[in-house]
């Protein structure tokens, strides 16, 4: 789609906001405005809800194969348009073009996966305790759903929510981040072209998410909310959802440990550390935040990681040789600077980076800090930036305890050749996603989600569609032997 013609998508129509207001979308690499987008308000949410409710019953009753075909066509279209979609994403979010291409492939995989799952929503017959009865279990769509998505993965976070909702038979309203709305509009256009009936999907963008979302939270007919974002906002939404007993899926903040044991393949550990730390310039809820390295390999790992990060090239993501793009905005840069300054003040040693470059764009270089301790901000908070904080440890029990000493529980990574240790950590690390000798565990067929304050529910895999289905049972009597 042409980015200068972005519009809200409501009830199958591309439309302006009722208030007639707009906001600017800024390229974080250049700080230049690339689009003006309608600024939706409460009346626009009401329009989207009414449009969805008008088609809810017909979409729920549409054959699973029909819903599957629409999702498959959308997946194929995303792949066919991958270069244009990737460039659009890089312009509004900043990540290098190679990463944007990878995200489009990842995003399309959710449409494809849930197209297949749509045809596998099976019921069950349970033996009754009476000869003239049978118990039938059936699954039905939970109803109108609201998906609130973040800016850091502007395509994949939408398809990971919209895919299962549509597959299950639920209409869905998407509220993307106001920082990255253009990818959301592009996905809506793809679904429209794939044959999705008007009203089944709406996309609303707005700079005042509180009043916009409140309309949906107050509406009883909105039966499901899926949110990816901060823990603080997730908690507020959970409280609001309780008023009308909405189904809730929350994928919230992380504080991922990356553990390297002395027996690990050190080169593989470094290679995966770069992926786990620098994917999307560290602006990922599963980014490695604390790198615990066993003391015998501490110096070697630190040196190899520093060399690997020093070889990365920072710049505008549209340039093909760039591997480090900008952060999303000035607030993100300020947080990274605060974490690095605090660590150095408390005695951490700067091995690489640590200084924001001059010029336009929200850039911060790959940075390595050694001698980090658990008391520093960078070990206590989610940095969301390109800073590798290295902490030393001695024993397995010690590092498990330190890694678990957080209220977050989304992702953790560990590297070892000891098969017994692989299983012990899998059982004792309090995280929903574990990368054992793997710095990139996310995939459409796996259940993505966290423990503790990192959220509720799972996205992806066959578990992902269950989040959009209600289970009913029918006690069938009058069966004569």
TrEMBL record:
Domain Aldehyde dehydrogenase as annotated: residue spans: 14-474
Record's keyword annotation contains NAD: no
Keyword Oxidoreductase: yes
Source superkingdom: Bacteria
Keywords: Oxidoreductase
Family annotation (PANTHER family): SUCCINATE-SEMIALDEHYDE DEHYDROGENASE, MITOCHONDRIAL (PTHR43353)
Protein name as it appears in the record: Succinate-semialdehyde dehydrogenase (NADP(+))
Species for this entry: Sulfobacillus thermotolerans
Source lineage: Bacteria, Bacillati, Bacillota, Clostridia, Eubacteriales
């Amino acid at each position: 789609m042409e980015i200068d013609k972005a519009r809200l998508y409501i009830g199958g129509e591309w439309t302006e906001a009722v208030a007639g207001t707009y906001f600017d979308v800024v390229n974080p690499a250049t700080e230049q405005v690339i689009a003006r987008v309608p600024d939706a308000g409460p009346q626009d949410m009401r329009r989207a809800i009414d449009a969805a409710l008008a088609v809810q019953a017909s979409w729920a009753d549409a054959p699973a194969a029909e819903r599957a075909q629409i999702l498959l066509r959308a997946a194929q279209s995303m792949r066919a348009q991958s270069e244009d979609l990737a460039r659009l994403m890089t312009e509004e979010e900043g990540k290098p073009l190679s990463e944007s291409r990878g995200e489009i492939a990842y995003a399309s995989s959710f449409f494809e996966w849930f197209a297949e799952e749509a045809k596998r929503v099976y019921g069950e017959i349970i033996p009754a305790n009476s000869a003239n009865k049978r118990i039938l279990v059936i699954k039905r769509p939970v109803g109108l759903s609201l998906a609130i998505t973040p800016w850091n993965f502007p395509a994949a976070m939408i398809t990971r929510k919209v895919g299962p909702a549509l597959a299950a038979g639920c209409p869905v309203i998407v509220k993307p981040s106001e920082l990255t709305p253009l990818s959301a509009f592009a996905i809506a256009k793809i679904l429209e072209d794939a044959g999705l009936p008007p009203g089944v999907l709406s996309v609303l963008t707005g700079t005042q998410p509180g009043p916009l979302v409140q309309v949906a939270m107050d509406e009883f007919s909105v039966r499901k909310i899926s949110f990816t974002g901060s823990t603080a906002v997730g908690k507020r939404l959970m409280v609001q959802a309780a008023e009308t007993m909405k189904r809730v899926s929350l994928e919230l903040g992380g504080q991922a440990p990356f553990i390297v044991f002395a027996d690990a393949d050190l080169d593989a550990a470094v290679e995966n550390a770069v992926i786990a730390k620098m994917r999307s310039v560290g602006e990922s809820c599963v980014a490695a935040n604390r790198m615990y390295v066993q003391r015998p390999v501490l110096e070697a790992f630190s040196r190899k990681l520093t060399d690997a990060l020093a070889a990365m090239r920072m710049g505008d993501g549209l340039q093909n040789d760039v591997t480090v793009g900008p952060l999303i905005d000035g607030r993100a840069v300020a947080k990274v600077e605060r974490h690095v300054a605090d660590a150095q003040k408390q005695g951490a040693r700067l091995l690489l980076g640590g200084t924001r470059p001059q010029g336009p764009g929200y850039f911060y270089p790959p940075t390595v800090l050694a001698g980090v301790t658990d008391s520093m901000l960078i070990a206590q908070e989610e940095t969301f930036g390109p800073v590798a904080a290295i902490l030393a440890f001695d024993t397995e029990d010690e590092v498990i305890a330190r890694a678990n000493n957080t209220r977050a529980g989304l992702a953790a990574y560990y590297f070892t050749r000891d098969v017994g240790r692989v299983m012990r950590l899998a059982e004792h690390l309090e995280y929903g996603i574990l990368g054992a000798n793997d710095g990139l565990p996310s995939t459409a067929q796996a259940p993505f989600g966290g423990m503790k304050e990192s959220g509720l529910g799972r996205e992806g895999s066959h578990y992902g569609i269950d989040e959009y289905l209600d289970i009913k049972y029918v006690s069938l009597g009058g069966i004569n032997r």
